[in-house]
Amino acid sequence: MAAWSRRRESTADEVLIRQLYAEHGGALLAYATRLMGDRALGEDVVQETLIRAWRNLEALTNSKGSVRGYLFTIARNLAIDRHRARQARPAEVAENVMTTPVEADHADAVVDSMVILSAMDRLSPEHQEVLRRLYFEGRTVEETAASLGIPAGTVKSRSYHALRRLREVMAERPARPLEMAAEGAAG
């Protein structure tokens, strides 16, 4: 007989919680989502709110205030607790962090510098000097022209042809293993 009574009470409790959700679930979800800043987290707060309301049905049925106010208070307290918990522990790392390509390390930069300097050796001395002053020393076209004693137009022309030749030389070099792996994955 006691089991029948408990089953009947649990069914009545379930009906009550379903009615609460039907009447207040949408507003509660909107409120929790706004508090949490994320719908999924808001849904978690709503679920926990309803579980706490179910565990404390006597407070819900005997409350002197509104049922919605009671539920919103539970949701607000849960949101505050979750916010405090997030502040107390390190940030979680997203699963898709490693979807970006691996950044080049210092060794790659050194290799790139060596390849560029080697390619520069294949340029004429005039082209090398213009590129050195423009790109390695950071001078303007006018400063480079004045320091070399040539017109600014000549500096621009030499720079254009030197960069064009560098591109050709760089295209001739074999690809590094990481580049070959990336090209194989893309193709």
Description of the molecule:
By secondary structure, this protein is an all-alpha fold. The protein is built from 9 helices and no strands. Helix 1 packs across helix 4 (67-88). The termini are far apart.
Task: Give the tags.
mainly alpha, 187 residues, 78% helix, 9 helices, 0% strand, rod-shaped
User: Which term fits the overall shape?
Assistant: rod-shaped
- Rounded mean pLDDT score: 80
Radius of gyration: 35 Å
Structural class of the secondary structure composition?
Answer: mainly alpha
Could you tell me how far the N terminus lies from the C terminus, measured between alpha carbons in angstroms? Answer: 71 Å
Please give the count of helices.
9
Strand proportion? under 5%
Task: Briefly summarize what is shown.
The protein has helices at 2-36, 39-55, 57-61, 67-88, 106-120, 125-136, 141-148, 152-172, 177-186.
